[in-house]
Design goal:
heterodimer; A: alpha/beta; six-stranded mixed β-sheet; four-stranded antiparallel β-sheet; 11 helices; 10 strands; about 35% helix; about 25% strand; globular; B: mainly alpha; MetI-like fold; two-stranded antiparallel ribbon; about 75% helix; about 0% strand
C-alpha cells in the first residue's frame, strides 16, 4: 500500500491510560496513517474508548485519569505543542449515543464555529449546508433548520452530530461506536458518509460490531485487556489473523 | 380479603393519615388568616400610611420597605451566589479547600437568623458605618440567602446532562464557553426558581432586620437606601405584641398580605419554570 510510505497522521508511543489504580490501556504504540479508516475492535474493557479519548484529550477532563506516553499529530506533541481546544477542533469526535444540544438544528451545527468567533451569517449558513450534505442529512432537514434538534429521530440526530463535528473542519474524526443505537438503514448512511469523508479526513472508528469494521475499515486493530493484540489490513485481519485470540474474537468465540 | 390485601389497606391508611397531618395545619393557618384578615383588605389598606399609632390606616410603608429589602438583597446575593455556585460545580477541583467551602456553606444555611441580625449589626451598621438602614438590612438578608442560592444553583447545574459539557468540549469550546453556552441556558429556570423561592423565605424574616433596618413606626416612605424603613414581618410583630388594642382584622390583614406576597412569588417561580420547559 502506498499509504504505508506516507508520514503518519498520528504517532502514538508508549501510551498508557489509567483510571486510578486500574490500567485501561498499557504501553500502546501505533501509527495512524493519513486518509485511512482505522477500525478498532475488541470486547468491552479492552481499552478501545480510553484510546480514542486520549487522541483528543477528552481523558484529560477527568481528573482521575492519568495518561503517560506521547501522541503526535503531524509531528507536534498534542499535550505540549497544541492547546486542548485547538486540538479538539482538528480532531473531532462522534459519541456512541447521539447527543444534540438543546438548540435548533442550525445552532447545533454552528456551535463549534461560533465558539471560534465566526459571526458572518453567510459563512455560517454555507457551513451548515455543506456539513449537513456531507453527513447525508441535508435533504431531510433543509426546510426546518430552525426547529429543535430533539425533534429528529435517533438516526437523524447522530447524522446531525456528525455534521456538527464536520463544521469544525477537522483533519481527523474519532467515532466511538457511532451506530450502537441505530437501525440498519441509519447505520448504512453513517457508514456511507464515513467512506466518503475518508477522501479528505483520517478516521478512527471504535466499534463493537466486527462486521462494521470489516465493511468500512481499511485497517483493523484488535484490542484485548488494555493491549493491542494485532493490527493489519482489514482483509488480512478477517481472513488470516496472526494471533489465535484475534481469530477467536472475530468468529465470535468470545466477547 | 387476603392478608396481603389487608396489610396493603392498612399501609395506605397510615400514609394517607400522615399526608393529612401535614396538610391540615397549613389549611387551618391559611384559613384562619384569611377569615380574620379578609375584612381589612382593601386598596386603601395596601396603599396608605398607618395612622393613630398604627391602630388604623394602611401598611404602605411596611409593604414598600419589604419589597425594597428583598429587592436589594437579591440584587446583591444572586450574582455572587450564582457565580460562586458556577465556580464550585464547574471549576473547583475536589480538594481540602473546596471541602472547607462546602462545609462553610452548609453551616451558613444552619445559622439561626438572629445571629445573622447580630452579624449585620456589627459589620454593616457599626463597622462599615452604614447605620440602621435599608442597605444594612438588605445586605444582612442577602448574606442569609447566599447558601440557599448557592445550593439551588448547584442543584440546577447538576441536572444539566454531562453530555452537554462533553459535546461542547469535544467541539473545541473552552471551559467558560461550555458553561456559558451549553450549561447555563439549561440551568436558568432552576436558578431563577431558587432565587425567587429564596426571596419568599427572606420576605418573612424578622430577626435579621430587627437591629439593622426596621423602624418601629415611620409613617412615610423611605428617602433612600440609607434610610430606615418599616417591614411587614416586623410591623406584624409590633402590632401583635407591642401595642395593645390593635383591631384584630388589621393584624390578620397584615399577615394575609405577607403570605400573599410570598404566594405570588412562588407562583411566578412555577410559571417561569413552566415557560422555560415549554421552550425546549
Amino acid at each position: 500500500m502506498t499509504a504505508e510510505a506516507a508520514a503518519p497522521k498520528i504517532e502514538i508511543r508508549d501510551l498508557t491510560v489509567a483510571y486510578g489504580r486500574e490500567t485501561a490501556l498499557r504501553s500502546l504504540s501505533l501509527d495512524i496513517l493519513p486518509n485511512e479508516i482505522l477500525s478498532i475492535i475488541g470486547p468491552s474493557n479492552s481499552g478501545k474508548t480510553s484510546f480514542l479519548r486520549a487522541l483528543n484529550r477528552m481523558n484529560d477532563l477527568e481528573p482521575r485519569i492519568r495518561t503517560t506516553g506521547t501522541i503526535r499529530l503531524d509531528g507536534a506533541d498534542i499535550r505540549r505543542g497544541i492547546a486542548a481546544e485547538d486540538l479538539r477542533k482538528r480532531v473531532g469526535m462522534i459519541f456512541a449515543l447521539p447527543n444534540p444540544l438543546p438548540l435548533s438544528i442550525f445552532e447545533n451545527v454552528v456551535y463549534g464555529p461560533r465558539r471560534s468567533g465566526v459571526r458572518d451569517k453567510k459563512i455560517l449558513a454555507g457551513l451548515v449546508e455543506r456539513s449537513l450534505r456531507s453527513s447525508f442529512l441535508w435533504d431531510e432537514v433543509k426546510d426546518r433548520l430552525q426547529s429543535s434538534a430533539f425533534k429528529l429521530s435517533g438516526g437523524q440526530q447522530q447524522r446531525l452530530c456528525i455534521a456538527r463535528t464536520l463544521a469544525l473542519g477537522p483533519e481527523v474524526i474519532l467515532y466511538d461506536e457511532p451506530c450502537s443505537g441505530l437501525d440498519p438503514i441509519s447505520t448504512a448512511k453513517v457508514e456511507e458518509s464515513m467512506t466518503e469523508l475518508r477522501k479528505s479526513q483520517t478516521i478512527v472508528l471504535v466499534t463493537n460490531n466486527t462486521k462494521q469494521a470489516a465493511r468500512v475499515g481499511t485497517r483493523t486493530a484488535f484490542f484485548l485487556s488494555g493491549e493491542m493484540v494485532e493490527i493489519g489490513p482489514t482483509g488480512k485481519m478477517f481472513t488470516a489473523p496472526d494471533d489465535k485470540r484475534t481469530e477467536d474474537y472475530i468468529v465470535g468465540r468470545f466477547g | 380479603m387476603s392478608r396481603e390485601g389487608r396489610r396493603q389497606t392498612v399501609g395506605f391508611g397510615v400514609l394517607l393519615l400522615a399526608t393529612i397531618v401535614v396538610v391540615v395545619p397549613v389549611v387551618f393557618i391559611v384559613g384562619m388568616i384569611v377569615a380574620k384578615g379578609w375584612s381589612a383588605l382593601s386598596l386603601d389598606f395596601l396603599f396608605t400610611m398607618p395612622t393613630e399609632g398604627m391602630k388604623a390606616g394602611g401598611i404602605f410603608p411596611a409593604l414598600v420597605g419589604t419589597i425594597l429589602l428583598v429587592g436589594v438583597a437579591v440584587l446583591f446575593s444572586m450574582p455572587i451566589g450564582v457565580m460562586a455556585a458556577i465556580y464550585l460545580s464547574e471549576y473547583a477541583k475536589d480538594n481540602l479547600l473546596t471541602r472547607l467551602i462546602n462545609l462553610a456553606i452548609i453551616n451558613l444555611a444552619g445559622v439561626s437568623s438572629v445571629v445573622y441580625g447580630l452579624f449585620g449589626l456589627s459589620l454593616f451598621v457599626v463597622f462599615l458605618k452604614f447605620g440602621v438602614s435599608i442597605i444594612s438590612g438588605a445586605l444582612t438578608l442577602g448574606i442569609m440567602t447566599l447558601p440557599v442560592i448557592i445550593t439551588t444553583t448547584r442543584e440546577a447545574l447538576r441536572t444539566v446532562p454531562r453530555s452537554y459539557r462533553e459535546v461542547s468540549f469535544s467541539l473545541g469550546a473552552s471551559r467558560w464557553q461550555t458553561v456559558r453556552h451549553s450549561v447555563l441556558p439549561s440551568a436558568v429556570p432552576g436558578i431563577l426558581t431558587g432565587a425567587i423561592l429564596s426571596i419568599g423565605r427572606i420576605a418573612g424574616e424578622t430577626a435579621p432586620i430587627l437591629f439593622t433596618v426596621a423602624a418601629f413606626y415611620l409613617p412615610r416612605l423611605p428617602h433612600g437606601l440609607s434610610d430606615q424603613a418599616m417591614a411587614l414581618p416586623y410591623h406584624l410583630y409590633i402590632i401583635s405584641t407591642q401595642i395593645p388594642g390593635i383591631p384584630e382584622n388589621i393584624r390578620y390583614g397584615t399577615a394575609l398580605v405577607l403570605i400573599g406576597f410570598v404566594l405570588v412569588l412562588n407562583i411566578s417561580a412555577t410559571i417561569i419554570r413552566a415557560r422555560y420547559r415549554k421552550r425546549k
